[in-house]
Amino acid sequence: MSEDNPHSSRGSASRSWLERIANIFNAEPQDLSDLEDIISEAAMRELIDTDTKDMLQGVLDVSKMRARDIMIPRSQMATIDIEQPLSEVLPILLENNHSRYPVVNEDKDHIEGILIVKDILQYALDDKNNDWQWSNLVRPAVIIPESKKVDALLREFRQKRYHMAIVVDEYGGVSGLVTIEDILEQIVGEIEDEHDDHEDHDIKKMASRVFQVSALTPLDEFNESFGTSFDEEDADTIGGIVLHAFGHMPARGESITLGDLKFKVSKANSRRLMQLQVIQPRKSEEEGN
């Protein structure tokens, strides 16, 4: 009488999973649905962990995307006008904390090139240098169509060592931009940098009535700090409350008033809110004077 061997069973399952992957690649499938099923099954069998599954799924998703699917829309592009003096450019750099900015001539349909922030530092620090020219700083812009495949774009980013591309529609008008970070975030999730707010800086006072607030601030923490009573059944974070109130994904600069507080979107992308500016009313407004 034979007994079942659990180790043999697990080994058979592993071999079966590997054989199925080999068969899929040997068959050169026309779509990715079979491979997606196998990745999901591998995660369920704990042959790969959840993070690995998510990254593999992200890679498969990227292979099906076009530039239009992940671009930062035109309305949310932070740009610098080529006619702006250095004194007006520096506040834009400080407000947005990007490393690269499209430089435009009059409007966003006329892109002169890309400004890399590190290139401007030597001029910003030299008070005696008053004869600098934008033409010495602006680098050529890479222009791509909305239909550009994202996996091909990532390959070009790596091979040609550029990090930003301007996306144009079929008529040549600028419809947005894509950075290498936007693509990587599709694979590995949101990438935080040294400028992103962390948990210990969810709420930061900027002026007497103005606060910078992370959109991920827990609602109970926000209510306690501002004396509000937003319902935690509606959302877990203040960003969720604001997003629900807008009824759409707002662009940077859009504002809305909830109760006595004015909320202005100070940082967002096409997928989520990141930072909000919260403005309290003046005392005279509170007292009805």
Task: Explain what this protein looks like in three dimensions.
This is Magnesium and cobalt efflux protein CorC. Pfam families: CBS, CorC_HlyC, NMB0537_N. Helices cover 39% and strands 21% of the residues. Mean pLDDT is 78; it is low at 194-200 and 285-289. With 289 residues, the protein is an alpha+beta fold. Strand 6 and strand 7 (174-179) form a beta hairpin. The protein folds into 3 domains: 9-64, no CATH class; 68-188, CBS-domain (Roll); 199-286, Uridine Diphospho-n-acetylenolpyruvylglucosamine Reductase, domain 3 (2-Layer Sandwich), CATH 3.30.465. It is built from 11 helices and 12 strands. Strands 8-9-12-11-10 form a 5-stranded antiparallel beta sheet, covered by helices on one side. Strands 1-7-6-5 form a 4-stranded mixed beta sheet. It has a 3-stranded mixed beta sheet with strand order 2-3-4. Helix 3 (50-63) crosses helix 8.
Keywords:
single chain; 289 residues; alpha+beta; CBS-domain; Uridine Diphospho-n-acetylenolpyruvylglucosamine Reductase, domain 3; 3 domains; 5-stranded antiparallel beta sheet; 4-stranded mixed beta sheet; disordered C terminus
List SSEs in N-to-C order: HHHHEEHEEHEHEEHEEHHEEEH
CATH superfamily of the largest domain: CBS-domain
Question: How many separate domains make up the residues?
Answer: 3
The CATH class designation of the largest domain is Alpha Beta
Assembly classification: single chain
Output mean pLDDT: 78
Strand content: 15-25%
Give the termini distance in whole angstroms.
93 Å
Radius of gyration: 25 Å
Backbone shape? flat
| Class inferred from helices and paired strands | alpha+beta
Keywords: CBS domain, Cobalt, Magnesium, Repeat, Transport
Family: Belongs to the UPF0053 family.
Function: Plays a role in the transport of magnesium and cobalt ions.
Pfam family, one: CBS
